[in-house]
Amino acid sequence: SLRLVQPHLLDTGTLRTDFLCTISGISDGRVCYGERLRSGIVDIKEDDAIDLFQEMIRSRPLPSLVDFSRFFSGVASTKQFNLVLDFCKKMELNGIAHNIYTLNIMINCFCRCCKTCFAYSVLGKVMKLGYEPDTTTFNTLINGLCLESKVSEAVVLVARMVENGCQPNVVTYNSIVNGICKSGDTSLALDLLRKMDERNVKADVFTYSTIIDSLCRDGCIDAAISLFKEMETKGIKSSLVTYNSLVGGLCKAGKWNDGVQLLKDMTSRKIIPNVITFNVLIDVFVKEGKLQEANELYKEMITKGISPNTITYNSLMDGYCMQNRLSEANNMLDLMVRNNCSPDIVTFTSLIKGYCKVKRVDEGMKLFRKISKRGLVANTVTYSILVQGFCQSGKLEIAEELFQEMVSLGVLPDVMTYGILLDGLCDNGKLEKALEIFEDLQKSKMNLDIVMYTIIIEGMCKGGKVEDAWNLFCSLPCKGVKPNVMTYTVMISGLCKKGSLSEANILLRKMEEDGNEPNDCTYNTLIRAHLRDGDLTASAKLIEEMKSCGFSADASSIKMVIDMLSSAVWWFKEPRRSPGVKRFRGTQAYLMPFNTITASLNFNTIEAHGMSSAELHRDLRQVGRSEVLKKRSARGLDDAECDLMVDLELPTDAVHNAHRAGKMRRC
């Protein structure tokens, strides 16, 4: 009788599970596939899925296509897409025909594997078998195209979808919105959101969260907050994903307090923050040097019962290393291991970087050698940090050996690695070798950035090859590379050292024309060059210009002025005793701009750069006394100020301001 019933049951696809369990004859005590499907197959492992599929295939009568669809969907939910496709093929080989549901599952699996070309072939099969593609079919394909960044093709498919009588729904639009946002065109995604309103397609939390996240990534935090409020006005409840995006966006915009406030807002709305929420906040606080706040958040997540993960510990360890607190970083590593959280290569790279930062490169190297014993593989960043550490400590041979090691092990150096190596070679007097490597890099397909060219230009200038540096600098536009502020400053410094001050001045103006605003380093480089050349008028003008841009003189520039002040006084008094002092271009040319220099230079920066105020006071008092000025002490000048004024003929205010710096307390 079973032989007579089976064909009918297979045709109708209505096999009852309890009947299947009865006829399967589970004599060995195993739970039949029907029971497994009813109880759910969440997080099913590959071996268990294979066993269950084999059981379904062996069952007589065969399971219904509904059961197969349920099984395939369950396995697909665990992202074992290739396994599902393998099952579909074997099902077909066993003479079991697909229906629209199993075919849709196949299309989804191909799309999730970024194989839309195969998904289209299944679509062809759908039509060949006489099935009509439904909204799910089209939505699945559209999502697959967007996952492959083929948004324009997805839009074309939407038009075809409408032609087939299937109306796009919120799922359709969400796929397109997600694809557009991933392509970086957030404004277009916002336009599409408005069109959804016009077409009476109600956007959901996924639509808004996707655009909010994209706005946060673009740094448009105000627009993201505005959209968040619009979302709430429409009665769409925010999800954890929405809050995580906003928290991250606020923190990246420097609005840490708002980010923390949003965390409290989540709790009040009974949206439980997860480890991602806390990781975003902790990471941003660490990068801003707010390690105490990061630790408080860490304690809060523990209190809330949220277990820190590897990313949490890595962020905190990186924070300790940034502040040279290596013992605490190592304690965090021990805590991480005790809490059964496995350290990864990022963990050890942070520690190695910390050791290199405090000049304990050898200890960093010992830790590096232990990485492989833990089953971890050092990456380009790890090697680059160590190469830099040895270069900066003057151990160039070890740095070069490490570089060769990474190449031999198949760890490819990137632009940053080569930049570190070239910088190390230039700083350690191996310019020629650096130039050889640089020449090979230019011939390679590696995309050299402006940082790399700046390193070589600086190396050439320091190595006395200013002409070569200038030629390379001038060739940058032809190479499609635009010089930045650092490149200009390095080239200006090279020209100054060569004595080509007029060319350096011209380059300063060219720099501004090209949209690169000079920084304090640029100005101080030129100011010192003009001071050395004795051109105080040019120095005074540059100081005024620098001051108007919000910059101040650095310690080197200030000390040069102080030394000149002392030397100049002796030159006026006894020029024959001061053969090393360069004669300034006329007494008046010297005296007048010096007033501007002493008045404009911010002597307070001496304290910030570690120069003793007492040193300035001592230098100022080197000026000899004058009986004549004793009569003018009534103007409020003390003895040292009077001495300075009479010898340099400076106005009272300028001298008083300069001398006052010598009386300030150290902060």
From TrEMBL:
<feature type="repeat" description="PPR">
    <location>
        <begin position="484"/>
        <end position="518"/>
    </location>
</feature>
<feature type="repeat" description="PPR">
    <location>
        <begin position="204"/>
        <end position="238"/>
    </location>
</feature>
<feature type="repeat" description="PPR">
    <location>
        <begin position="519"/>
        <end position="553"/>
    </location>
</feature>
<feature type="repeat" description="PPR">
    <location>
        <begin position="274"/>
        <end position="308"/>
    </location>
</feature>
<protein>
    <recommendedName>
        <fullName>Pentatricopeptide repeat-containing protein</fullName>
    </recommendedName>
</protein>
<feature type="repeat" description="PPR">
    <location>
        <begin position="379"/>
        <end position="413"/>
    </location>
</feature>
<feature type="repeat" description="PPR">
    <location>
        <begin position="414"/>
        <end position="448"/>
    </location>
</feature>
<dbReference type="Pfam" id="PF12854">
    <property type="entry name" value="PPR_1"/>
</dbReference>
<dbReference type="GO" id="GO:0006396">
    <property type="term" value="P:RNA processing"/>
</dbReference>
<dbReference type="InterPro" id="IPR011990">
    <property type="entry name" value="TPR-like_helical_dom_sf"/>
</dbReference>
<feature type="repeat" description="PPR">
    <location>
        <begin position="449"/>
        <end position="483"/>
    </location>
</feature>
<feature type="repeat" description="PPR">
    <location>
        <begin position="309"/>
        <end position="343"/>
    </location>
</feature>
<dbReference type="GO" id="GO:0003729">
    <property type="term" value="F:mRNA binding"/>
</dbReference>
<feature type="repeat" description="PPR">
    <location>
        <begin position="134"/>
        <end position="168"/>
    </location>
</feature>
<comment type="similarity">
    <text>Belongs to the PPR family. P subfamily.</text>
</comment>
<feature type="repeat" description="PPR">
    <location>
        <begin position="99"/>
        <end position="133"/>
    </location>
</feature>
<dbReference type="InterPro" id="IPR051114">
    <property type="entry name" value="Mito_RNA_Proc_CCM1"/>
</dbReference>
<dbReference type="GO" id="GO:0007005">
    <property type="term" value="P:mitochondrion organization"/>
</dbReference>
<dbReference type="GO" id="GO:0005739">
    <property type="term" value="C:mitochondrion"/>
</dbReference>
<feature type="repeat" description="PPR">
    <location>
        <begin position="239"/>
        <end position="273"/>
    </location>
</feature>
<feature type="repeat" description="PPR">
    <location>
        <begin position="169"/>
        <end position="203"/>
    </location>
</feature>
<dbReference type="Pfam" id="PF13041">
    <property type="entry name" value="PPR_2"/>
</dbReference>
<keyword id="KW-0677">Repeat</keyword>
<dbReference type="InterPro" id="IPR002885">
    <property type="entry name" value="PPR_rpt"/>
</dbReference>
<feature type="repeat" description="PPR">
    <location>
        <begin position="344"/>
        <end position="378"/>
    </location>
</feature>
